UniProtKB/TrEMBL annotation:
Subcellular location: Membrane
Cross-referenced Gene3D superfamilies: Vacuolar protein sorting-associated protein 35, helical subcomplex Vps35-C
Predominant subcellular localization, coarse grouping: membrane
InterPro entries from the UniProt entry: Vps35 (IPR005378), Vps35_C (IPR042491)
Membrane topology (UniProt): Peripheral membrane protein
Key words of the record: Membrane, Protein transport, Transport
Protein name: Vacuolar protein sorting-associated protein 35
Residues in the signal sequence: none
PANTHER family assigned: VACUOLAR PROTEIN SORTING-ASSOCIATED PROTEIN 35C, VACUOLAR SORTING PROTEIN 35
Pfam families to which the protein is assigned, alphabetical: Vps35
Length: 789
């Protein structure tokens, strides 16, 4: 209903304006000055309405404004026809109502100034003083806006045709400042018009009119003669006085932003202490973050665009002033939430990173200031504040793209302490991803220690909590980041690399039973790479107290892998023991190698009970033991005997058979003549064949016929015999192979076997070798089988 009334009133007022404008134009066309003034005053009287909302009043004002342009041209033409401009100036003051009278005065006043018949100062002073007569907020605001508009091109401003002397410039400056002050007062008073229930609506309407006030500041920035000195001594103090004293949230926020945007960057830099000094005096409800961020962003862009400006930032101590001002704002606004204070320091940090990127002490000082503020808050439970902290910590990371640089900031980890568990982990992942993405070289134990202190959210349980409820896939991904991080750590100095490994171990072992199976393997393999670098050197090239010796590192690994046995990961521990045994063998450390095998055997006997896991573990043991060259006869016999014993005690007979024939490789090593025992090889193969016979009998007893499984075991054994025949084992005879082949042939006649493809491939291979030239064909000629007859 109110909106409909508004439209009706506006339509009526516009109709009246059009009607009076028509008669005014007709009077102008007939050069009738008296009627032109009469109808223009009646047209302007429509602006006296109090019924319209500010938005609708603005529409009416623009209609009148367009018509006044025609009237101004008419006044100029009248002066050209001999009419005295002074008399016109006096004549318009006879208008009956104050508002039309002042609009007409402003119109003729602009013509009077341009005629140069009187000093600009006198007219400006007269107009700005007489406009005080209208104190209605809305009508007064638009009247002064009109005054500013018609006199804008009459001031001695940059690019104006009316350049003046020093006094004229100062008087013009005073005119704009005075008009700005009065307009701001009227604008602020608008909030008190009407009932308190409509306050929100009035604030919205006021916000729509803010540019009317802000245009004055733009005019000030364009005035000729407003140099740094005048701006510092006159303009800025007068503006800030009005901003602070108006005590209005909307006005303060908008005008501070206007100051920042319209005046030159160098002015801001040279008057930074004055501008920042006003910030703590603003109303607590003012969004000071927006004000300060706008100022810092403006100055950051200024520094980036002009290399010559950088010394000025150091000269005026911009960082110190911003840091002090933000501290004062936080201190003054006691109700400022944690997210708000962190955001302020985030803006300061971004400013510092842009302008003082080489001053790590400044960056660390900002971090320290944030810590001081957070100390009163404790752990952040506010999601918004936590996100701001993540952005705060990410800023230097994105700027430097080097975690090593971040590690030099002593307050960086102190800020992270205020994050909750989940947010801390998220921030840690960002840090680790930065290392991986930028291929950051972390080469000292001290840096590694500092990095892992930062990454403790991923490495160990946080504040006694356990990640039982975390998604398993997410947990695996998190620990994968840790593993990749461990592999990135490297130093060319073996001694330093050894210290790195010891440091990583210290942190990794705090991870708890869920993490250790995922984090110990990369540590072990990183240490094994170091051992291989050291292999072939002196026993201790760094002195008796050095940590970078293969023996000492292997002892460390033995203790480390042992931790896996305590967290129910025996399969993984056994694999790592065997890897370490291989490294010890390469370093010719027999005692250490034997110790690793002993630990692996104990794990196999005491911890691995699943039959499939036993088969896999036993194959790993046999494969690793076969490559050992360091053992003396006694130690090798002990370990070999144990392995063959384990093979015979597997649960399933086929697994026994395969494990036993694989043990044959333990008695034959190509590279060492001392480790070639053909007789024991054949004994293992015959023992395996007996087990295969047992499998056949058991199958026949249960099914009444031969099985594919037993035939496949025979074929596998046949291939083992052929392998050792080719290797030159004289104990492997043609008769032995022939008898096994005949056994296979007879078994395949009893039942269709799925092993036929395997058999045919083996037979083709034998035939192929018999047809080769040289010693290999001679070996295969010993094999006489009916298949080839």
């Amino acid at each position: 209903m109110i909106a409909d009334d508004d439209e009706k009133w506006l339509a009526d007022d516009i109709a009246a304006v059009k009607q009076n404008a028509f008669y005014m134009q007709r009077a102008i066309d007939s050069n009738n000055l008296k009627d032109a003034l009469k109808f223009s005053a009646q047209m302007l009287s429509e602006l006296r309405t109090s019924k319209l909302s500010p938005h609708k009043y603005y529409e009416l004002y623009m209609r009148v404004f367009n018509e006044l342009g025609t009237l101004e041209i008419f006044f100029k033409e009248e002066t050209g026809r001999g009419c005295s401009i002074a008399e016109l100036y006096e004549l318009v003051q006879h208008a009956g109502n104050i508002l039309p009278r002042l609009y007409l005065l402003c119109t003729i006043g602009s013509v009077y100034i341009k005629s140069k018949d009187v000093t600009t100062t006198d007219i400006l002073k007269d107009l700005v003083e007489m406009c005080r007569a209208v104190q209605h907020p809305l009508r007064g605001l638009f009247l002064r806006s009109y005054l500013a508009q018609v006199t804008r091109d009459k001031l001695p401003s940059i690019g104006s045709e009316l350049a003046g002397d020093g006094d004229a410039q100062m008087n013009a400056l005073e005119f704009v400042l005075q008009n700005f002050t009065e307009m701001n007062k009227l604008w602020v008073r608008m909030q008190h018009q009407g009932s308190s229930r409509e306050k929100e609506k009035r604030e919205k309407e006021r916000n729509e009119l803010r540019d009317l006030v802000g245009k004055n500041l733009h005019v000030l920035s364009q005035l000729e003669g407003v140099d740094l000195g005048i701006y510092r001594d006159t303009v800025l103090p007068r503006i800030l006085e009005q901003v602070v004293n108006c005590k209005d949230e909307l006005a303060q926020c908008y005008l501070m932003d206007c100051i920042i945007q319209v005046f030159p960057d160098d002015f801001h830099l040279q008057t930074l202490d004055v501008l920042l000094g006003a910030c703590p005096q603003l109303q607590p409800s003012v969004d000071i973050k927006t004000v300060l961020s706008g100022l810092m962003e403006r100055l950051s862009n200024y520094a980036a665009s002009s290399v010559e400006a950088l010394p000025n930032f150091l000269q005026v101590e911009a960082f110190s002033k911003f840091n002090y001002a933000i501290g004062k704002v936080v201190e003054a606004q006691v109700d400022l939430p944690a997210a708000g204070s962190v955001t302020l320091y985030l803006f300061l940090l971004n400013f510092t990173l842009h302008v003082y990127s080489d001053r790590l002490d400044y960056v660390d000082q900002v971090l320290g200031s944030c810590v001081t503020q957070l100390a009163a808050t404790g752990k952040l439970c506010d999601d918004k504040a936590a996100k701001q902290i993540v952005a705060f910590l990410s800023a230097p990371l994105e700027k430097y793209n080097n975690v090593v640089t971040i590690l030099k900031l002593t307050n960086y980890p102190r800020v992270m302490e205020y994050l909750d568990h989940e947010t801390n982990k998220a921030m840690t992942i960002i840090i680790v991803q930065s290392v991986l993405k930028n291929n950051t070289h972390i080469a000292t134990a001290d840096e590694v220690d500092a990095l892992f202190e930062l990454a403790k959210g991923l490495i160990k349980d946080f504040d006694g909590t356990i990640d039982n409820e975390i998604d398993e896939e997410d947990f695996q991904e998190e620990q994968n980041f840790v593993a990749r991080l461990v592999h990135k750590l490297y130093s060319d100095d073996p001694e330093e690399m050894s210290k790195i490994i010891f440091t990583v171990r210290k942190h990794i072992l705090t991870g708890g039973p869920k993490r250790l199976p995922l984090t110990i393997p990369p540590l072990v393999f990183s240490a094994l790479k170091l051992i291989r670098r050291l292999r072939g050197g002196d026993e201790n090239p760094f002195g008796d107290d050095a940590s970078a010796t293969p023996k000492r590192i292997l002892q460390l690994l033995s203790e480390t892998v042992e931790a896996l046995s305590d967290v129910s990961a025996p399969d993984l521990a056994l694999r790592l023991y065997l890897q370490c045994a291989q490294a010890a063998n390469d370093c010719e450390l027999e005692t250490v190698t034997y110790e690793f095998f002993t630990k692996a055997y104990l794990l196999y006997e005491e911890e691995i009970s699943d039959s499939k896991a036993q088969v896999t573990a036993l194959r790993l043991i046999i494969g690793t033991l076969q490559r050992m060259r360091i053992f003396n006869v006694e130690n090798r016999d002990i370990l070999t005997h144990k392995a063959t014993g384990y093979s015979a005690r597997l649960l399933r007979k086929p697994d026994q058979c395969r494990a036993v024939y694989e043990c044959a490789h333990l008695f034959w090593t190509d590279e060492c003549e001392k480790l070639k025992d053909g007789e024991r090889v054949v004994l293992c193969l015959k023992r395996a064949q007996r087990i295969a016979d047992t499998v056949q009998k058991m199958t026949n007893a249960s099914r009444g016929t031969s099985s594919t499984g037993s035939v496949a075991l025979y074929v596998e054994l046949l291939n083992k015999y052929l392998y050792f025949l080719e290797k030159g084992n004289t104990e492997v005879t043609g008769d032995t192979i022939k008898s096994l082949a005949e056994l296979i042939r007879s078994e395949t006649k009893k039942v269709e076997s799925g092993a036929e493809s395997f058999i045919n491939s083996t037979l083709r291979y034998i035939e192929f070798q018999r047809q080769q030239d040289g010693g290999m064909s001679e070996k295969y000629e010993k094999i006489k089988m009916e298949w080839f007859e």
